[in-house]
Specification:
heterodimer, A: Phosphorylase Kinase, domain 1, Rossmann fold, six-stranded mixed beta sheet, B: Alpha-Beta Plaits
Chain lengths: ~725, ~180
C-alpha cells in the first residue's frame, strides 16, 4: 500500500489536556488506516501520546454505541432495546415538553464537561438550552480555584509559552503537576532548559519518574502546599533574598503579607507539610536566586484551601520577582485564546432578539449531584449528558446515583456504554472527533487548530451539533436552527476576522495566535490587571466580590488546613488515618480510554498505591487484594506497595469506572476549593463569574481520609 | 561466525529522558495491529531507596537485535534469522511452530507469544523503514527518549551527549 496515495488530513486532539496535539490521519476508502503526529506542530512535534495512538483502536472499537437505545429494565440495570433516531427523538421531545409544562424550563439541565473540548457544539447546545430556559451548568472541577487564586493576585492567568521559557529560565519548578500523564509534550522543553543548565525541582506527594530526575524534590503532605509556600517566603525574607525593587514598584500590600509570612518560620512549615527544614530552605534559595518558571498543575485544586495555596505560590513568585520575563513566570494554563474566541460566541448562545432570561438557576458542576438532590421550585427532572461521564467523575458516587434515580429523563450522548450511559433512559450514539467538525483552542500552547470531519459518522452516530439542532427544531425553535447548517457555518459566525478560518483547517494549521491575543511574556511591562494595577499580596478584588457571599474571602493567602485531613479531622483520622489522593495516569484522560483493551493491558487491575511503611503496619504485601474504605464506601483493589508515595498517603488513579470496581469517588465527599462556599451548588447565572474564575469551587477530591485493610471483609 | 552487518540498525534508549508515558507501547500496537497479549515493546519501571529518598528508572524494552542472537541459534525450524544488510532479527511466522525456545534463551524477554500460539517479535518496523520512516516507537516518543539509526550515527550521538554533559558539569573552558 503506497502511503502517498492515501488521503492525508490534519486534525487535532480535543481531549482535556494541555497539549492539544496536531494529528495527521491517513484515510483510505473512508477509513482511517493510520494516525501520526503532525510534524508541523511546533510543540507536539510529530509525537502523540499513548491515548493518541489508541484512537484507531477506540474509533473502530466493537464496543462503540452504534444506534439509539431505549431503557427497558430498571434504571441502571443496563437493559436497552434498539430504537430508531426518530422514535428516540420523538419520545425525548415529548417527555421534555411534559416536564417543561409541569415544572418549567429550569427542570432541564445539561451535563457536559471536557470529554471533547471543541467549543462550537456547546455553543449550539447553549442556544437551545437558553431558548428553552434550562438550568445553566457551569464552573469547573478542574481549575477554578487555582484560576481564582491567580485572578485575585495577578488579575489574570497567563503563562510564558514552553518554547520561550525553556530558552531562558534557570530553574523549572513543577508543582502539583504530573506532566508525564497530562502534559507530556512539555517534558522535552524541561529537558531543553536542563541542557542549558537549569535546575529542575518537583513538588508532589508522589515521586513520579520525572520528579525522580529532578535536582530537588519535595513531598508535602497533600493539601499543605500553601504552608510550604509561606515557609519558603519566610526564609527568603529572613535571609533578605527578596526582590525589593520588584516589590516596591509592582506590588500592593507587602507589609501585611510580610506579617502573615512572619507567622511561618520554616520549622512550622516543615511540621505542617512534612518536608524537611533543609529542603524548604534550599528550594526557597533556588527560587529567590535563579530566574524561575513555576509551572503548577491541577493537583493543587484538589483541596478546600486550594485558592489560597495558589495565592501563596503566586505571591512567592512576586516576592522573588519571578514574573514578566521570558524565563520567569508563575502559571499553570493559559486560556487567552479560548477567552478571545468566546467574545464573539455570544451571538450563537444568545441569538439577537430572542427572549432569554439571564437570571436563571445556575449549578456549579462540582456539586451537580448535590444540586439535583437539593433543587426545588422547580426540581431538576431531566438531564442531557454529553461529553462527560458524571457517575465516576463526580465526588461521592452514592449521591450521584441517588440523584440520577430521581430524574424523569436522562439522555446520554456517548460513544461507549459508560457508567453514566448505563443509567440512561435513552442512549444516543455520538460521533468521535474524526467524524465531526470542531474547534479546540488549546490551554497549554498558543497554536490554534480545527477538527475537520475526517471520515463520515460511523454506524448511526450523528454529530453533536445535529443532535442539539434537531432537539431545538422539535421543541419549537426551528428558526434558530437552520436545517443543513454544519460546524463550518457556526464556526464562521464566531471566528474573528483576524483569524481566517482556512488558516486553521487542514491542510493548513496549526496557526500561531498573535501576541495581541496571547502575549509572549505576560506582565512584561510590570502592570497587572488588578484594581491597583499591581500584583496584589492583599487582594482588593476578593473583598469586593466576596462581601455578600459565603466563603473564605481572606484578602491574604493565609493557610487554612483542608477540610478532611489528619489535622483538621482528628476523630475521623483515628478511624481512617490515610489521605487518599486520586492522581492521573498516562493511559487515560480522566474516565476516557480505560474501557479499551490496550489500555487495560498496560494499567492492569485497579490498584491502591501505598508506602511500604503503611503496608507493613497493615501486613500488606505487594499484589495483595485489599479493602480501601471509609464511611462513604469501600473498594476492593490490588495493593501496589511503593516508596514513591509519601507515608500516610495512598493513591487510587482517577478515572476508573464504578463498574470496574476501582473508582476513587466511591470514597470521596462533595467538597470544593474556595474561595466561595459550594453549599448545595445552586446559584444564579447573573451571580456567578464566567467559568467560576472568581468563585473557584474546583473539586476537592484530595480531602478524603480512608483506611486500608488486607483481604476482603 | 556471522559477519557484522555493514549498517547495523538499532534503537537507542535514553533512560535519562524516559518518563514511562507508554506512548511507545500503544504506537507499537497500532503499527503492528496487535491484540491484547503480545507486547513487542514494554515499559519497565524500577525503584530503589537512596539516602532517605527514592530513585526511579523507566525504560521501554524491546528486541535489541543481537549480533549473535541466541534466539536465531536455538530456533529449531530456522524461523528466526538475522538480516545481513542491517542486522534486524526477523521471524518468519510461517515456519514458527510456537515452541517458545526463543523466549527461553532471550536475555531480554523480547519474543512474545501471539494469540495464535506462534511467536511474534519486534521487527524494527521493517515496513515503515521501507517507506523511509522510523520505527513506530521512535516516532511516537513524545519526550524523544528513543533514537533510531545506524550504530555509527547512534555512537556519535551518545558521544556528543556525553561531551555536552561533561561540559555542563565540569564547565570546560569556553571561548
Amino acid at each position: 500500500m503506497d502511503k502517498d496515495r492515501l488521503l492525508r488530513v490534519k486534525t487535532a486532539c480535543p481531549r482535556n489536556c494541555f497539549d492539544t496535539c496536531g494529528i495527521v490521519a491517513y484515510v483510505k476508502d473512508g477509513k482511517i488506516v493510520e494516525l501520526a503526529g503532525d510534524t508541523d506542530h511546533p510543540i507536539t512535534r510529530g509525537h502523540l501520546c499513548s491515548k493518541g495512538y489508541a484512537y484507531l483502536h477506540r474509533t473502530y472499537s466493537p464496543d462503540r454505541i452504534k444506534y439509539p437505545m431505549k431503557r427497558v429494565g430498571d434504571r441502571g440495570e443496563g437493559k436497552f432495546v434498539r430504537v430508531t433516531w426518530d422514535q428516540a427523538l420523538n419520545e425525548i421531545t415529548s417527555r421534555l415538553k411534559t416536564i417543561h409544562e409541569e415544572y418549567g424550563g429550569e427542570a432541564l439541565m445539561e451535563y457536559r464537561y471536557g470529554g471533547h473540548r471543541d467549543l462550537i457544539a456547546p455553543l449550539v447546545a447553549s442556544r437551545f438550552l437558553n431558548l428553552h430556559g434550562a438550568t445553566v451548568l457551569g464552573g469547573t472541577f478542574c481549575d477554578a480555584s487555582e484560576y481564582a487564586g491567580f485572578i485575585y493576585t495577578y488579575g489574570s492567568l497567563q503563562s510564558v509559552p514552553d518554547e520561550v521559557w525553556s530558552e531562558h529560565t534557570k530553574c523549572v519548578v513543577i508543582w502539583g503537576h504530573r506532566p508525564e500523564a497530562t502534559h507530556v509534550h512539555m517534558i522535552p522543553f524541561i529537558y531543553r532548559a536542563r541542557e542549558r543548565g537549569a535546575k529542575l525541582m518537583v513538588i508532589d506527594p508522589r515521586i513520579s519518574p520525572l520528579a525522580a530526575k529532578g535536582d530537588l524534590y519535595l513531598q508535602p503532605r497533600p493539601g499543605t502546599d500553601g504552608a510550604l509556600a509561606l515557609g519558603m517566603a519566610n526564609h527568603i525574607l529572613k535571609i533578605g533574598a527578596e526582590d525589593a525593587e520588584f516589590i516596591k514598584e509592582h506590588t500592593h500590600g507587602f507589609e501585611q503579607f510580610r506579617r502573615l509570612v512572619d507567622e511561618w518560620p520554616v520549622e512550622r512549615a516543615s511540621r505542617v507539610t512534612g518536608v524537611p527544614v533543609e529542603d524548604i530552605k534550599e528550594a526557597a534559595e533556588i527560587i529567590a536566586t535563579k530566574e524561575t518558571i513555576i509551572q503548577l498543575g491541577m493537583g493543587l485544586n484538589r483541596y478546600t484551601n486550594s485558592h489560597n495555596t495558589v495565592r501563596a505560590i503566586a505571591c512567592l513568585a512576586g516576592l522573588t520577582g519571578n514574573l514578566g520575563r521570558p524565563g520567569a513566570c508563575c502559571g499553570f494554563l493559559d486560556k487567552s485564546i479560548q477567552n478571545y474566541l468566546t467574545l464573539k460566541a455570544k451571538k450563537v448562545s444568545f441569538p439577537d432578539g430572542a427572549p432569554i432570561n439571564k437570571t436563571r438557576r445556575f449549578v456549579c458542576i462540582t456539586g451537580a449531584n448535590q444540586a439535583i438532590l437539593s433543587a426545588k421550585d422547580p426540581p431538576i427532572k431531566a438531564i442531557i449528558c454529553w461529553r462527560g461521564n458524571l457517575v465516576p467523575q463526580l465526588m461521592n458516587v452514592r449521591k450521584t446515583i441517588e440523584a440520577l434515580n430521581q430524574l424523569d429523563l436522562l439522555v446520554v450522548i456517548e460513544q461507549f456504554m459508560t457508567d453514566t450511559a448505563g443509567y440512561a433512559d435513552f442512549v444516543l450514539p455520538a460521533c468521535s472527533f474524526f467524524e465531526q467538525g470542531g474547534l479546540t483552542p488549546p490551554y497549554g500552547h498558543r497554536y490554534l487548530q480545527a477538527q475537520v470531519p475526517v471520515i463520515p459518522p460511523l454506524y448511526e452516530s450523528k454529530p453533536d451539533i445535529e443532535i442539539w439542532s434537531e432537539l431545538g427544531r422539535r421543541l419549537g425553535f426551528a428558526e434558530y436552527f437552520p436545517k443543513g447548517w454544519t460546524w463550518l457555518d457556526w464556526a464562521r459566525l464566531i471566528m474573528p476576522e483576524e483569524i481566517p478560518l482556512e488558516s486553521i483547517i487542514s491542510p493548513n494549521g496549526p496557526y500561531k495566535v498573535p501576541q495581541e491575543i496571547r502575549p509572549e511574556v505576560p506582565y512584561a511591562d510590570g502592570k497587572f490587571p488588578t484594581p491597583s494595577g499591581k500584583l496584589e499580596f492583599v487582594s482588593q478584588e476578593i473583598m469586593a466580590y466576596g462581601k455578600d457571599k459565603d466563603g473564605d474571602w481572606n484578602p491574604l493567602p493565609a493557610y487554612v488546613e483542608a477540610i478532611e485531613s489528619p489535622v483538621s479531622s482528628p476523630e475521623l483520622s483515628a478511624k481512617y488515618p490515610l489521605i487518599m489522593i486520586s492522581a492521573l495516569t498516562p493511559v487515560r484522560t480522566h474516565s476516557q480510554f480505560i474501557n479499551l483493551p490496550w489500555m487495560r493491558e498496560i494499567e492492569g487491575d485497579p490498584q491502591v498505591e501505598i508506602n511500604p511503611v503503611d503496608a507493613k503496619a497493615r501486613k500488606i504485601s505487594n499484589g495483595d487484594i485489599v479493602s480501601v474504605f471509609n464511611d462513604r464506601g469501600k473498594l476492593r483493589v490490588k495493593a501496589r506497595v511503593t516508596a514513591t508515595i509519601k507515608p500516610g498517603v495512598v493513591n487510587i488513579f482517577n478515572g476508573w469506572w464504578v463498574k470496574d470496581g476501582g473508582c476513587p469517588n466511591v470514597l470521596t465527599e462533595i467538597f470544593a476549593g474556595g474561595p466561595r462556599a459550594l453549599g448545595n451548588a445552586i446559584f444564579r447565572m447573573d451571580d456567578y463569574s464566567p467559568a467560576g474564575t472568581k468563585d473557584g469551587q474546583s473539586g476537592a477530591y484530595g480531602c478524603c481520609l480512608v483506611e486500608v485493610k488486607r483481604g476482603v471483609e | 561466525m556471522m559477519s557484522a552487518a555493514p549498517q547495523q540498525l538499532a534503537v537507542y534508549i535514553d533512560v535519562d529522558r524516559c518518563v514511562a508515558c507508554y506512548a511507545c507501547e500503544v504506537a507499537c500496537k497500532q503499527a503492528h495491529n496487535l491484540p491484547v497479549g503480545p507486547r513487542l515493546i514494554r515499559v519497565i519501571s524500577l525503584e530503589r531507596p537512596r539516602n532517605n529518598q527514592v530513585e526511579v528508572i523507566s525504560a521501554p524494552l524491546a528486541c535489541v537485535h543481537c549480533y549473535e542472537a541466541p534466539c536465531v541459534e536455538v530456533c529449531p525450524t530456522k524461523a528466526l534469522s538475522r538480516r545481513k544488510e542491517d542486522g534486524i532479527v526477523l521471524l518468519n511466522r510461517i515456519r514458527c511452530i510456537g515452541c517458545k525456545m526463543c523466549l527461553v534463551v532471550c536475555p531480554f524477554g523480547a519474543p512474545q507469544v501471539d494469540v495464535d500460539g506462534k511467536m511474534i517479535k519486534c521487527d524494527l518496523c521493517v515496513d515503515r523503514l521501507q517507506k523511509k520512516k522510523k520505527p513506530a516507537c521512535v516516532s511516537a516518543c513524545p519526550v524523544e527518549a528513543l533514537k533510531f539509526g545506524t550504530m555509527e550515527e547512534l555512537s556519535s550521538m551518545v558521544r556528543e551527549k556525553w561531551l555536552n554533559q561533561m561540559w555542563k558539569v565540569k564547565g570546560f573552558p569556553q571561548k
